[in-house]
Amino acid sequence: MKIFIKSAAILAALLGSSLTQAANTTASIPMGVEVPKSCSFSDVSSGLVLSEDGSEVQGTYTFKCNIDGGFTAFYSLDSLNNSGNSSVRNTNGKTLPTSVHLWAPNTVLNHTLNGQLNNIPHSFNFNWLNVPIQTFIKVQLVNPTTATTPAGIYTDTFRVNVNY
Predict the structure, then answer these.
(1) What pTM was estimated for this model as a whole?
(2) How is 12-55 classified by DSSP, letter by letter?
(3) Which of 15, 42, 55, 152 is 20 to 30 A away from residue 102, measured at CA?
């Protein structure tokens, strides 16, 4: 019995000492992802056919960015000359003056591009995180075509460049 009590005492001492010597260890693994800034266009009109009678035609595009402001849209026309006049041009270099207007209903964007130089900036400073910015481009010939207007296909290109 003495051996049993001695063994029990030694066992209790060993178990007790191992319980008091129990330790804890942890590890941590940081996680994250970097989402790059981006802007994208959608619903971009495929082209505008100007009316010979000078009536206004309208195109549209929408863009949005995954940043809350801090981006700028620059608008330009290939035909804008140093005086800021826009036109459509045929392959022989003949031009027909146009009037071009931009309007975005959910912004303060309301520009007439005539009389302006290219790369007209419009800044979006805050509260634009993933907000679709729909913009309308309204174009018309300044003067209707007539029987004496030189024949040909007249073209121009509107461009918007979003910097972020």
Answers:
(1) 0.76
(2) HHHHHHHHHT-------------PPP-EEEES--S-----TT--
(3) 152
